[in-house]
Amino acid sequence: MKNQIKEYIHEAATLEQLYRTNPSAFKRAFYEIYPEIQSELSAQIWSERLRNRSEEITWGMAKDWIFVGVVALCIAFFMQLPDLLSISHDFYFPRNMAFIVMPGLAAFFAFKQRLTWKDLGVPFVLMVISVLFINYLPQNTASDTLILSCIHLPILIWMLVGYVYCGAQLSQIDKRIDFLRFHGDLLVMCAVIMLAGGLFTALTINLFNLIGIKIEDFYFRYLVLSALPAVPLLATLLVQQNPTLVSKISPVIARIFTPLVTLMLLIFLVAFIYTGKDPYNDREFLLIFNGILIGVMALLLFSVSESTKDAASQFQRISLVVLAFLAIINNGVALSAIAFRLMEMGITPNRLAVLGSNVLVLLNLIFVTRQLLGLLNGQKTLADVEDSMTRFLPYYALWAAIVSFAFPIVFSFQ
Predict the structure, then answer these.
(1) pLDDT average, residue stretch 224-251
(2) Residues near 67 by Cβ (< 8 Å), separated by ≥ 6?
(3) Kind plus residue range of the DSSP H or E element containing 154
(4) Nearest to 3, CA basis, from 162, 173, 163
(5) What are the transmembrane regions (predicted)?
(6) Which of 133, 262, 301, 337 pairs with 174 at a CA distance of 20 to 30 A?
(7) What is the rounded CA–CA span in Å between residue 276 and residue 292?
(8) In whole angstroms, what is the distance from residue 303 CA to residue 184 CA?
(9) Which residues contact 95 (CB under 8 A, 6 or more apart)?
(10) What is the pTM of this model?
């Protein structure tokens, strides 16, 4: 988007259209390149406009709300579909939950950016193939490959949403980094909406209880179940229309929790060595260990996306380097334990899937850490760090696709 702003800085209509497609990303990109274009009168006008709008709450256009309303109704219909067609909840929701929530987000981004069917052809076809494949897998709740497909397909669908978010131009680094940053604001807004919804639910149920009417079963089965998956869609609309509403909260969260998690991870590693815990033969401990690693990796990527801004402090970036080093050590321990179990106990779908995921995470961590070290000593730029964060996204998508589609067939649906 930075290059587009520079290109269209003298074309008012085009620049206005670019702003309306994604106000949050536009404002962020504009102020990153403003020092380069501040001599332009149009850039100065846009700077004043964006600054003056920062305290206002924008509700968006009527057509945006109509679109979101229609998609929310579709989401509610699919949430109630098992009861309408007498389909087992245990069969339906683990396989289809990602296809209920994420396509709505993709549709919203496509609508806002006015993407054509040609742009959406690849993600649409992959989405349809994924839906058909996961729902035609044999019903066996003890099947490891079925569980792996249900876990990894949402990752693939999330990547497809990113493809649409980037305007079918996922190869552009600035759009990829905007997609990652967007999730920080989205999570904050979702939390606010759910807190408000929880308060409304408590008030509603207690008010009806006062007059002797029990509405809990109806309320949760129909209203909450239908509305909850639409929360990310509503949050997306609010974030897109009000880029400054929560954008200052995400960096605060990153700056507070990055040093805390770094300290916690360091204490954990010391305690891990002191207690002599054996990850090689304790399967439950290894699962929890990998879960912690995934959480640390998510925080690291989120924090790096915020800390690549010029305003990030040197202390924050040093904390990120230390966190990345500790995450590499954790990943190395987990990877060695997985490799040991593979050699001693044989190949299973679960072990092979976790091994591939850990290898990708380790390579990504090493690449990000290398760029962060280069940034600290002045040999790398912010663009290099951003590139290191997003470079592995296609590989995660590829591995998710392999585990989702190939594993059930290779391992005979076991």
Answers:
(1) 81
(2) 107, 108, 111
(3) helix 144-165
(4) 173
(5) 57-79, 91-111, 120-139, 145-165, 186-213, 219-240, 252-274, 286-305, 317-340, 352-373, 393-413
(6) 262
(7) 18
(8) 9
(9) 134, 135, 137, 150
(10) 0.78
